[in-house]
User: Fold this.
Amino acid sequence: MKLFESIVREGPLTVIPEPENVRVPLSCHRPEIKCGQRIARGIHIGGGHYVPISGTVTEVHPTYVCIRADETSQPTPKELNRLSGEALQTALNEMGANIPLGSVQTLIVNGVEPDPGVTAFSHMLNEFSQIIQLGISTAQSLLAPSRTVLALENGAPQTIEGCESVFIESGYPNGLDPLVAKAVTGKENPDDAVVLSVGQLFEIGIIMDAGLPCDKTVVTCNDTDFVVTVGTSVGEVLKAANQTVNDGDAVVLGGLMRGQAAHSLLQGVSKDTYGLFIVPKGQYPPVEDSPCIGCGECISVCPARIDPATISGYAEFRMYEKCRMHGIDACMECGMCGFFCISRRPLLQYIRLAKQHLTQADVCDPIDKGEG
Assistant:
């Protein structure tokens, strides 16, 4: 894997036909629909996930919902063009797009690819420029920025009307939102700036155009960028890309640095999936729970300047509050620590585990043990 080399993808996007069956991931949220129910596209399933096709629910599981295409249920679009301000922001949030409310000084459109080997964002800027522009104008109407910036990698040819182009130094992880914000504003975690990726603006544009939650994503797979319906199985995308999975291979949803392994070829892609990769067996040394040898490699490459070794050690032994004390909230989840770890420890996975537990602790009510 080349972390510091840019890839340019040319030609039209390849559209994978809408499947007859979709499996929408739920991330362990409680489903709000029932098996056998006929539902229209756009209905909320649970946890910010929405029905991508009209049809009949054939299976409900804590981590996914299966739907078979059916022409009997047709969606009712919302007329979002008549809304503005807080009403528009609320409507967008209800359809899965998250835009903060309130004025900002700078709106940053992050057009830098999120992971090595991914070209979905640059391809979307070329092929879906009108949708992206609609997303930007919607964000501008809500945030009222005095400056709108399009952040691109050095040498990128894309432009957007009404956006000032700022070029970011090539190489991963320079395209991550916090680092892009620093490069554009000169400040770390600026309070007066909001960063929205091309993927987020694509979603907002789709919602504004259709009046329904976004049901498409653009996925890089085997040197090709595909337009994919949310819930399409990993196996179908790999088949369209002429990819074969062999015993012992790992299939990664997302990027090779920040993605997560698919548990099955039946697993569906989500609206946030921008890449699909096969890691052949034996290509990289296996990750294992080896002890930290204290080499400091993870610290030296961490863009957030935290100590991944210490944080992951606390996470390994369920000392999650200690993780917070050592700055886990500053972690960008770039995966650089695990990539360079000599012991091949699953540092990013430990950090994500700790973040999940800390989030649950923050949002869940403490148990009332009573008095006496």
Notes: DSSP finds eleven helices and 16 strands in the chain.
